[in-house]
Automatic annotation (TrEMBL):
Gene Ontology biological-process entries: carbohydrate metabolic process
Native organism: Bifidobacterium longum
Iron as UniProt keyword: no
Domain of life: Bacteria
Keywords: Glycosidase, Hydrolase
Protein name per the record: Beta-xylosidase
Keyword Metal-binding part of the UniProt annotation: no
Similarity field: Belongs to the glycosyl hydrolase 43 family.
Stretch forming the signal peptide: none
Amino acid sequence: MASDNEHCGDRGRECTITVSNPVLRGMYPDPSWIWDATREEIVLVNSSFELVPGLPIHTTRDLVTWTHTANAVDEAMSHRLLIDGVEDSGGLYAPTIRRIGGRYVIVCTVARVNEVKALAAGCSQKDVDGCRAAQGNFVIEADELTGPWRGPYWVAGAEGIDPDIFEDGDGTVWWTQTRPALHPQWDGQTEIWTQPIAPGTWTLQDHKTVIWRGYGMDAVWAEGPHLYRVGDYLYLMTAEGGTSFEHSEMIMRTHAPRGFAAALAGFEKNLAAQDIWIEPARDGERSVVGHDNRLFEACKHNPILTHRHLGAGEPVQCVGHADLLLHPTVGWLLACLGIRETPGEEPGETFSYCGRETFVAPVVWQHNPVSWKLDGGEPNKRIDIVDPGWPVVAPGLGRLPEKLVVDVDEDGLPCAVRGVDSAGCDCAAGNNAACPAELIQLDDTRLVGVRGRDDYRFLRVDGQEYAAFTRPEYTMMMHQDSTHVVMVMAEAESGQLTAEITDRGDKRCIALGALGANEWFGLRLHGNRLEFLAGQPAPDSIDEGTMPDIALIAHADVTYARIMADCDARFLSTEWAGGFVGCLIGVKRR
């Protein structure tokens, strides 16, 4: 993460800082965030899949410095969430974080649970039953961001993935998520449903109401829903197209000055007066999505965010799964996932190794400038003060900005944010400087475990060009998933290095040769090649007194390294392996 206001020079004066996207690098997908008035900072949580600890929480006051403040799921809670039994690319999907009733609340889904594996790993039958009844959907809560986090509270009757939690102005709390359409018109169609939930017990109340089924014909995977109140309107924002190259973000709204419940009731009353009935998907439910009548009106310039129209040469792909935030001094912001791609040799061929990362963009709200004319009104009456219009992401760019330009006041707080491409930026460096070498000890709080790799401690690979070194008494692993792995180890007496490569379960070994005196060994992602390295750490990178405690050097300087061998790295990419995760680099004591 970037360092604080040192980029501005001395404190106590205004300055401008540039921050490169992504703001969180490496596998930090599905961001959800809030402005936390109690802490006076932004709080952001990400999916963590099978990683433990999970649901990492970062905070920032200035959008430049991001601090890993907590993990909402510790090892004990991971057992209650059955992480021991999840399959590849399973685990904790798409959290939403909000403040509800003075508490921090995260809602989430644990997915791809193998119940037999979970029970064999010691998970309780009670949690297996609770997970099944809730289809993996749960709530955790805490009084303080740093914990302790309570739960999980399994939400019986929930269906699907990607839950959202929203407290309306009348105090009603709504649980909203996506499920496969019960009567789909085409493959991949989903539907967004909502239902009141009691925040004391986290039990669903009343009945489910289907509120959306996708933006248009053949729309697939409407998911990641979030509800927001802005003025007299309630906005529904969803991802669409799946989290690959067709990913996008859509927004809809309904007029709800007296609350969501009143808007739903009023819509049904108006239909009944016209003798219109929208058939629900099943008995006991409601639907406000008919052929000719919908509660939510779609934004005419949807999608409000996508890169799918930019072609395979665009270096950032798959953008979407967004969440909006109103900052007290800079206004509206959007966080979303995106994937940095490495070009392949063939035209249109790209590969990603870091997984889905967190990007940020500024947002403004605008009206159609001639809507007064279309509505038959007068120019001076064209904007209703309770009608905010529609969000425009990164105005003037039409895509995620490469950089954020942050104007910082004399207290080090942001007062304005704008998005620019590299050519439009002339300001002090923020997190776009080259990453210095990081010395990692085994007790570093950024390290995570992966189920099935109990002895290893991992870091997220966070660069398209990435090198790491370890000492000969450790074994190193680059991990994509359980069937796409590279392991390198040194024989204790001879120092002979061997690499074991696993690609879709097929294993092969490479004899790399012997380490020299005082040499460490490592791996380097370089384009679509993986290099096996040996060498002494850079002379200035490690204090001799701390050397025995260092397990891993991340972002290592390869100036003093020699290449012992290399291989095709594409089998470690998300495109090759499938699934939703990025690469990890890990070590264990031999």
